[in-house]
Amino acid sequence: MQPHQFEAELSRIHAQSFAWAVRCCRGDRTEAEDVLHLTYAKVLDGRARFEERSSFKTWLFGVIRRTAFEEIRRGMMHRLWMGKWWQEREDVHQGTADQATLVVEGERRDQLRQALGQLSPRQQQVLHLVFYQDMTIQEAATVLKMQIGTARTHYERGKARLRQLLDREGDQA
Asked: How far is CA 32 from the centre of its chain?
């Protein structure tokens, strides 16, 4: 891939890359910015090389994940476990819905966040990649460096557990 193609592809998937970096940093947007900056530096200076064995996006997400873990080992992400599972990417409803609707939707988001937080870290990661990053389970497995069968198991068990937790919340409400 030529340097101009590389930069164009990085620009094209920047928003998705940032969302994945936020996930790898357990919701800490500041740390995610640092990780993404370090990742881009690795890519642009050649320390991380795209060998076209997977899609560019799958490869880049793997580099982001490894960079985040390297930063954890170095102790630079001391607040990793204190962040939320997921940060909202944009403001929801800017003045178009009534107050009751906003309250109900806020409660649903809170229930989803709480339920997601009860899943195993691997289930959270696989579900994030598949649902929020539009990856296949195979691509998620590649990013997470796990066997496809393991990724499928985490995906199915995560969905089932999430459904169970949300159904329980609905029954209690």
From this structure: 11
